[in-house]
Design goal:
Chain A has 100 residues and is mainly β. Chain A is built from 1 helix and 7 strands; from the N terminus they run βαββββββ. Chain A has one domain: Alpha-Beta Plaits (2-Layer Sandwich). In chain A, the strands form 3 sheets. In chain A, strands 1-5-2 form a 3-stranded antiparallel β-sheet. A two-stranded antiparallel ribbon of chain A has the order 3-4. A two-stranded antiparallel ribbon of chain A has the order 6-7. The longest helix of chain A is centred in the N-terminal third of the chain and has 4 residues. Chain B has 16 helices and no strands. Classes of the chains: A mainly beta (100), B mainly alpha (438).
């Protein structure tokens, strides 16, 4: 099982890599964070007083993948994202195969 | 027996006689009558002005401070309402609005003594108790305005002392001078300063006191280097809306009647707010590239404060023009002037209310229309009124500045004015009130 952590812009949540979002609804953790990455910050002005805001709001997505649910037949560790087969959405199996 | 008691206790006897003579004359017939329309409007106006403090000013201010001081900022507005209401009835009203002295009133109406069901406020057709509570709301908001200058760093206990003493020793005398029959009040016998709803008594007074307080307390820790961005400007916008609507009662109610003058005041007020907001927004758009919401609400409040003394004396278009001037003058006062002089007036009480109040008082002398307010201004060939306005500005500025400074020094012997540096970093909400926004 692998824990994937991704820092994305907030409006990109729905476009997040399917490999991570495949576990959406059961175990995905989304946290609002602030980070100062390659994106430059903003300058905010309040009545003539300027403040340089270096830390911008982002979303941190954490998801465990690699622990495949029985029956969904998908190798979740594959990097290119593929849409899950239709029957995966209806899978109710809770067993997972751990890979080390 | 009684004679011997009087001989042995002359002072007590004298007090007993005085107490007996001072009973309220509820059955006394008044020459003036109470008009129901005027009374209904003034009751409404009282509610509108009280709403300007709670929650109008509370929201306007708290939205502009940092998260750790939001509740403490609201507490200051709340506290002013709580304490100053009681003090006004106890001693403030009588000192401001009774007696014939040119400096201060008398003690005839302590605790509203003598004001009965039939009592009518002089030169009006409303109950005197209504006039008293209407003026109370003015006193409350004036004290609450000063709190904006010392936001983020004043100890609550020190502010409590300040609210009580400043009301009695600074606001009350100036209110007496301008409105209560003092040396600035216009009467039938002598000219006076035109101040319809409080350009000097409220705004210039609070602005100067705020500036002095900000200088005495000193700058906030981290001022100019740390991020002091507002916690939630949407709260400030809501507060501005409540202030704007409430100002209809502040200026419109100063006519003390439901009449055409009240309507002229309301229209001038609304146009001044609109023009002030547009002007400040335009100036920001031109100088900084973007029209900010904070600029819009600041311009609106600047326009409202500036039109306050003139609202019952000018035409609607003059109200709009005064608002435009307010937008320009107060914009530069809050940006260039503040940066050049280097003082930390947290919420620009001086820049908006002080400068606005003085500007509006001066412009009242320029634009006053005799057909509306009974007194002509400069444009109607009465340049002497401008001189009187400047006199009123000078007197208010001098007393507010000097007395505020003295009061703060006195209070500093009772309790430190500022919180400790550690408490300032941690925030006033949790250190002064034991509460925090989650």
């Amino acid at each position: 099982m692998k824990l994937i952590t991704a820092i994305i812009k907030p409006f990109k949540l729905d476009d997040a890599p399917s490999a991570v979002m495949r576990t959406r609804g059961s175990g995905t953790i989304v946290t609002e964070v602030k980070s100062n990455g390659r994106q430059s910050g903003n300058v905010e002005t309040y009545r003539g007083a300027e403040y340089a805001i270096d830390f911008l709001t982002k979303l941190m997505i954490e998801g465990a993948i690699g622990g495949i649910r029985a029956g969904n037949g998908v190798d979740a560790s594959a990097a290119p994202a593929r849409p899950a087969p239709p029957h995966c959405e209806q899978s109710r199996c809770r067993t997972r195969r751990r890979s080390r | 027996m009684t004679t011997k008691l009087i001989q042995r206790f002359p002072a007590a006897a004298a007090l007993a006689v005085m107490a007996a003579a001072a009973q309220p004359a509820f059955a006394q017939t008044q020459a003036a009558t109470i008009d129901p329309a005027d009374t209904a409007w003034m009751i409404t106006a009282t509610g509108l002005v009280l709403m300007m403090t709670i929650p109008g000013l509370a929201l306007f201010y708290c939205g502009m401070v940092r998260k750790k001081n939001v509740l403490a900022t609201m507490a200051q507005s709340l506290f002013c309402t709580m304490l100053c209401s009681l003090l006004w009835v106890a001693i403030g009203y009588t000192l401001a609005f009774s007696g014939d002295s040119s400096v201060i009133g008398g003690l005839d109406k302590v605790l509203a003594r003598g004001i009965g069901m039939e009592s009518v406020a002089p030169q009006t057709r409303i109950p005197e108790l209504l006039f008293m509570i209407y003026q109370m709301t003015f006193a409350v908001i004036t004290v609450a305005l000063v709190a904006g200058s010392v936001a983020d760093r004043m100890r609550f206990s020190a502010f409590a002392w300040f609210a009580a003493l400043w009301l009695i020793f600074v606001y009350v005398p100036i209110a007496h001078w301008g409105w209560g029959g003092g040396f600035l009040t216009m009467t039938a016998e002598r000219p006076g300063v035109l101040d319809f709803a409080g350009g000097t008594v409220v705004h210039l007074n609070a602005g100067v006191a705020g500036l002095v307080s900000a200088c005495v307390l000193g700058k906030r820790r981290g001022y100019g280097t740390e991020n002091f961005a507002p916690y939630d400007l949407s709260l400030a916008v809501i507060g501005t809306g409540l202030l704007w609507v409430g100002w209809f009662g502040f200026n419109g109610g100063s006519a003390l009647a439901a009449n055409s003058r009240a309507v002229f005041a309301i229209v001038a007020t609304h146009l001044a707010a609109s023009a002030g907001a547009l002007t400040w927004m335009a100036l920001e758009w031109v100088t900084r590239g973007k029209p900010s919401v904070l600029g819009m609400i600041s311009g609106a409040v600047a326009g409202l404060g500036t039109i306050t003394p003139a609202s019952g004396f000018v035409l609607p278009w003059q109200g709009a023009l005064i608002g435009l001037i307010a937008g320009v003058v107060c914009f530069y006062a809050c940006t260039s002037l503040k940066q050049r002089l280097g003082y930390d007036d947290s919420l620009d009480v001086f820049g908006v209310h002080g400068v606005g109040g003085a500007t509006g008082t001066f412009l009242t002398g320029v634009f006053a229309v005799a057909a509306i307010g009974g007194t002509p201004g400069l444009l109607e060939a009465n340049p002497g009124q401008v001189v009187l306005q400047l006199y009123g500005i000078a007197a208010t500025l001098a007393w507010s500045g000097i007395a505020t400074f003295a009061l703060l020094k006195v209070i500093s012997f009772i309790v430190p004015l500022r919180v400790s540096e550690q408490n300032e970093v941690e925030g006033l909400d949790v250190t002064q009130h034991g509460e925090a926004l989650q």
